[in-house]
Prior knowledge:
Layout: H1 3-21, H2 25-30, E1 32-40, E2 43-47, H3 54-61, E3 65-76, E4 80-90, E5 96-109, E6 112-123
Amino acid sequence: MSKNYEEEVLKAYNNYLAYFLDNNMNGINSLVKYPITYIADGECKLLDAFPIKPKEMMESKQWYTTIDTNTYTHGVNSKKGHVISSGTRIRKDKSVIEKYTAFYGFTKTDEGWKMYAISSVTLD
């Protein structure tokens, strides 16, 4: 696994995360190769729009921030890379909303690394 590819994929993921937290759908869309594969509960969907609207998710969950995050690449080569991230979402009063883990698939394109698959699991 090339360290350079790992750094490039993590940079793309971190850009995605910054756009997500800023509710910047144009930024998110700039990092996605559509159609994106969304792995939901028991099914896969190919979508022409991003499956999550950050602002709606934050409001519906009263999500203030995320703590105890752990993000790393789990396999990267010159063509594709996998990012795994987990953490705990909390409200402003620091009460726990949920613990999660998520998978992001990235592919190398002429425009740079783009997300082509996403899946998350809320832990019981």
